[in-house]
Design goal:
The chain is mainly alpha-helical and 72 residues long. The protein has five helices and no strands. It has helices spanning 5-21, 26-33, 37-45, 53-62, 67-71.
């Protein structure tokens, strides 16, 4: 699955929003998700174009939310 355009912007915003709601740093999310912190930083800043579906799944699981919550 590929994310692009508006859906990508929504995913980026929601990842950061959910992480901050939990009071986690990017390092904590990286540790819990298995996604490297530099990748999380790039995703949140929009510097990493089209986050992979696999990374989005890992991040959603760590944040204890359904992947659909990030993509709607």
């Amino acid at each position: 699955m590929e994310y692009n355009g508006l859906k990508e912007v929504i995913i980026i915003y929601k990842i950061r929003e959910k992480r901050v709601e939990k009071g986690w740093t990017q390092f904590e999310l990286a540790e819990k998700s298995g996604v490297p912190q530099p990748t999380i930083s790039q995703i949140e800043s929009g510097n990493r174009r089209y986050p992979t579906h696999e990374n989005i799944k890992k991040i959603a699981k760590a944040l204890e939310i359904n992947i659909e919550e990030l993509t709607e």
